[in-house]
Task: structure prediction
Amino acid sequence: MHQLIVERLAADLAVLTNAARAAHEAATHEENIPDNKYDTLSLEASYVAQGQANRAQEIRRALHAYRSLELQRFDSGAAIRLTALVTLEGADGGSKTFFIGPQEGGLKLELEGEEVVVITPGSPLGQELIGKSEGDEARIGTVAYEVVAVS
Result:
């Protein structure tokens, strides 16, 4: 899971860096020099470039955090903490799998045909799960789930 996150972040960073570069070039290209005060193409492109550059910086920080992340070992009965892969099962038999990571909550990846969602310890769900172990109940909104696996 850890390697999948690093690979995804590296790929996202490459895409965003290229997009930011292209938006910057569009913002500074001589054809986009405004002819009048209503011609805002260059200004809009500069806003896009800045937004993409900011997001690229966020991804760089997350990539560094994941590359330097020390994976924890989870023995039977271990409490959920950072780097845990947690599977929850609902009363209907449906399951959800989460990875507790330091950043990039909401990132969705596929591991062995299953969707895994990255959550952070500071998120509401992360706060609900931290400290629980197999067999404990966790609530997502009004729905109760059982923690069926922690690895």
Observations:
- The two ends are 11 Å apart (CA to CA).
- The CA atoms of residues 79 and 131 lie 5 Å apart.
- The helical segments are 2-28, 41-67, 124-129.
